[in-house]
Specification:
The protein is built from twelve helices and eleven strands. Bound molecules: pyridoxal-5'-phosphate.
């Protein structure tokens, strides 16, 4: 079976540096908040182009810590997209706040800024756009609504780290940017990890305290926090991957574009990049008219697929009693039935790519036309 994501090819490329960096951590023994953490935070803040990076234990905890730092809690409303991974809304709900879902743009699959303002109420505290599949949402438009109503914007960049929006990098486009270093993400470690980015020094300090039990110095806890630290060993892994990250981002963009070029004649809807956006193609996702048939046909040829995501957040039982519902989410619902992700990683060969494209072309040929939603 072909790999959906090939982490081994990447590891072979950096193995010597990786071994050295891991050995350095084993030698100094500072497993919690060791020197690699500060080194990685500085490198990542510079990469994104913001003043501060606070590394944390996962992309999920990055969101929780950002919300806690902004004082989001019981009774507050947070406007977000229904077409995302559960973490985007789960973290809002766990704080006692209520996710308010508005529909997505049928071309980018990201939150539709034109619909956000109508969802603002006196209880709204923040907007959480997600850069699904690897391209940022329309952050300027979202920031404009936020500025008008005095709201914070937390970018969920778990899938878009490395992407740029109008020449600026994902995670540096709003009040706080949150990302994930889950192994399969564009920049992944070898376990769980994540980071929060901001230009606001006071917010950065608060997030650093919250990730460490709300302490400002040892055993002094002015605010409530959690154990949300990233391991030093995981920072060593990220540091080993950073020197090749630009190259991998370029390869992802090239492979995504090549997929779209080769699939142009097939009966599927390929990803659309908004002007001013680059994508890191955390997923290369197409729309088809009969997903089950396509998944089976590819599986029979040894080609793995995945569905991100088959159920929208507004239809998740866990959120039913806390979400503010009523908006028309027809586009997100239609997408959830049609999307399927193909193997995607920076080391995907032209040969594999052609094999996948041939399989998709054959599997979709006799299906009803795959018209774009919306
Ligand atoms: C959009 C989105 N948000 C948040 C997360 C949570 O990240 P993590 O798995 O590191 O907690 C993920 C990935 O899993 C994601 O895809």
């Amino acid at each position: 079976m072909m790999q959906f994501i090939d982490l081994k090819a990447q590891q072979a490329r950096i193995r010597a540096d990786l071994d050295q960096r891991i050995a350095a951590v084993l030698n100094h023994g500072q497993y919690i908040l060791g020197p690699e953490i500060a080194e990685m935070e500085k490198s990542l803040a510079d990469y994104v182009g913001v003043g501060h990076c606070v590394s944390v234990s996962s992309g999920t905890d990055a969101l929780s810590i950002a919300f806690l730092a902004l004082g989001i809690g019981a009774g507050d409303e947070v406007i977000t997209t229904p077409f995302s991974f559960i973490a985007t809304a789960e973290t809002i709900a766990l704080l006692g706040a209520r996710p308010v879902f508005v529909d997505v743009d049928p071309r980018t699959y990201n939150i539709d800024p034109a619909l956000v303002e109508a969802a603002v109420t006196p209880r709204t505290k923040a907007i959480v756009p997600v850069g699904l599949y690897g391209q940022c949402a329309d952050m300027d438009a979202i920031n404009a609504v936020a500025a008008k109503h005095g709201l914070a914007v937390i970018e969920d960049a778990a899938q878009s780290f490395g992407a740029s929006y109008k020449g600026r990098r994902s995670c540096g486009l709003s009040t706080i940017g949150c990302t994930s270093f889950f192994p399969a993400k564009p920049l992944g470690c070898y376990g769980d990890g994540g980071a929060c980015f901001t230009d606001d020094e006071a917010l950065a300090r608060r997030m650093a305290e919250i990730r460490n039990h709300g302490q400002d110095r040892r055993y002094h806890h002015p605010i409530l926090g959690l154990n949300g630290r990233m391991d030093t060993l995981q920072a060593a892994v990220v540091l080993a991957k950073l020197p090749i990250f630009d190259d991998e981002v370029t390869a992802r963009g090239r492979i995504g574009a090549r997929y779209s070029e080769l699939l142009a004649g097939a009966n599927c809807v390929t990803p659309w990049l908004a002007p001013g956006n680059t994508s890191v193609y955390a997923q290369y996702t197409i729309q088809v008219s009969d997903r089950e048939a396509v998944v089976k046909a590819l599986h029979d040829k040894g080609i793995p697929t995945a569905v991100h995501y088959p159920v929208t957040l507004d239809r998740q039982p866990a959120l039913a009693s806390v979400m503010v519902g009523s908006a028309d989410l027809a586009i997100a619902h239609a997408l959830a039935e049609r999307v399927v992700s193909l193997p995607m990683h920076p080391y995907l060969s032209e040969e594999n790519l052609r094999e996948i494209v041939a399989a998709v072309t054959a599997a979709t040929a006799a299906l009803p036309p795959a018209a774009a939603v919306g």
